[in-house]
Amino acid sequence: MPPTTAPDSDGAEPQSCADATPASLVGRARSLRAQAGRLDPVLVMAYRPRAAELSFEAWLQAIREAPVEVDRFTAVAA
Predict the structure, then answer these.
(1) Burial class (CB in 10 A: 0-12, 13-18, 19+), 32
(2) pLDDT higher than 70, residue 6
């Protein structure tokens, strides 16, 4: 039996947030927010919080991946 997929799934979305880049997460969040504007209010209650979660995850990943100049902070300690 073939695996089931969502009817509107194009396969481009990553399976987990762990493999996604901050840019792809932000893009998916924007897409969900745009779709929420055209959906039934019941679905909006699921789409908008998920969009917020994706935006937050993108922010966390960007913070973790940001380069830090260690030498700049060691001069303060000396």
Answers:
(1) buried
(2) no
